[in-house]
Amino acid sequence: MPTYTVHAPPPRQGETTSPPERFLFVRDGFYFWAFVLAPLWLLLHRLWLATVIYIVGYGLIGAGLTLLRASANAQFLVGLLIALLIGFEASSIWRWTLSRRGWTMLGFVVGEDAEMAERRFFAEWSRRDENASAPPPASPEPKYSTPVRRGPPSASDVIGLFPEPGAQR
Hints:
Blueprint: E1 3-8, E2 24-27, H1 32-36, H2 38-44, H3 48-67, H4 72-100, E3 104-110, H5 114-133
Antiparallel strand pairs: 1-2, 1-3
């Protein structure tokens, strides 16, 4: 089952916390459309810096391969590897951009699809919210005792699996 990370945007002016309707669920795993159409996928998700880095990096690698007179097969293989990298790392790029924008990660949830993940997350989140509003039960003050050492310390006290001082190896 897919794993989703849950992100909350920074609160807007006049808000103390972000409303749950604005939470974003980012699925872990391979993104097919990021593999096939990387620049468009990056633009669709408003990952501007990642798009610029992708275009500049891809252009530099392509120019370097051309200057090295690499074969068309080698250029295709490098392009395929870059596309695979983007496909596998699309969720990490998305999370990185969200953290740069001030979004906080609230946790992760496992679900068959995004809707099931949202249901599970909000069910647990509302249950925790109810428990947080109730005052915790008063617990007695913990009583600590000082450790007791039996016998005087000796010169050969060794901690762990180290040999005794002065013994042969």
